[in-house]
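Record type: monomer structure entry
Structure origin: computed from sequence
Chain ID: A
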Amino acid sequence: MGRRIKNNKSAPVHRDTISIARLVKSIFTSLAIPSILTACAPVPSFNSESGHSVSSTGKTILYVGAGNKRWDEEEKMEAGVGGSQIVSPDAVYGPPAPSSLSAANGASKNQASRFGHKGNKRQHYALEKGRDNQSGAPDLSSNVKISKDGLWDRLRRRLMLTAYEHESIQAEVDKIKRSPGTLGFISKQAEPFLFYVVDEIERRGLPMDLAMVPMVESAFQPTAVSPKQAAGIWQFIPGTATDNGLRLVDGYDGRYDIYAATKAALKYLAHLQGLFGGDWLMALAAYNAGEGCVQKAILANQKAGLGTSFWDLSLPAETKAYVPKVLALSRVIADPGMHGVVLRKISTLPYLARVEVQGESVPLSETLAGLGISWEEFYSTNPAFKPDVAATTPFNLLLPLEKAQMLAANLPGARLIAARKYVVKKGETLTVIAKQQGVPTLKLAEWNGLKADSRVKPGQELIIYPV
């Protein structure tokens, strides 16, 4: 069991004066999610070591996530420069989706809301401000092929663990079919962050089934905390977090940093897969129970002359249930229609823009206040930070486009990193554009729903992601 992160003494006094009524309400809510996705926080093993550029042509423009402000046509026209224009966030995505826990089944029963941060009255302020857009993102260009399921389609192309057959997997699939609203709730929770998870999995060449892990671990609630002090969407305990490069320092807890924690979790899962001879089921089991626990179970079966596959091992009950839950989600998402499930469409573009910050310690509260960004809004997508404490760089921030642009322009050492839109010029091919933009041709084609040998036309808009 990992050590508990101590409250920072410089934090606002109101951390210690949160009303009992709010705390009780949070705990009550955290018990309501159906058992099919009960978060299984990683626990330490028996040996205590386990647990877990923009083109200068003027034709490339920022094209990233949803903001809180709706642009009118005059603002859009004023933004146009050199034949291109900044794209209205709401025009791309529709307004942010509401994320009230009362709209679904609440948090996992193994989780409680994380208190101790200023302005944590609502966990997802930015998502609650807008209206729900069931139709998803509109077509960006008549010349660009957009997948009908958006980001789900990109995820679906790299699922690799859906062929496993076992009665426990089918049992979990049946539970999802009986309660399809739970998956709808989780997809709504995941919407602001799923792009970064999918992007990093793809970047590492890993099975996209790993995107199901934070669904099971935390239902994609960024401030989730388990009774075992596992935290964030990937539910890291402190020891495993630091072992995998996450910083837990005054003013910043990397377990709650969506971008950093995703990179650390996938690094750890890849390590576990190698440790267990390429077996992803063992890797998932070890992520939940600790690698030592799984190794001990394997040795016990070897001594007894028994099988040593995941299904043969004597493991904690929650671990035996955990792996089938991940596999069941992969199977359902691979073909939701067959299982009577309708997935909320999520745009293939990032919902939030990323700001990379280097340099000296940054007094975030002062900077945010000067830009008119409330701490509550900032915290909803950046829960790793504490107010009134200078955060030690480097770190990444995730914010709606307008806010990210403001922050990058005013924060020393900050740089906006975002997907962008490129307008094809006469005579250009995918290969020429890919080389010019410094991205692989195959990736450029995939991002835009094209084949590597597809012909592009002048004026056609292509999306280019950061690499």
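Annotation 1: The first strand starts at residue 60 and ends at 62.
Annotation 2: The chain has a mean pLDDT of 73.
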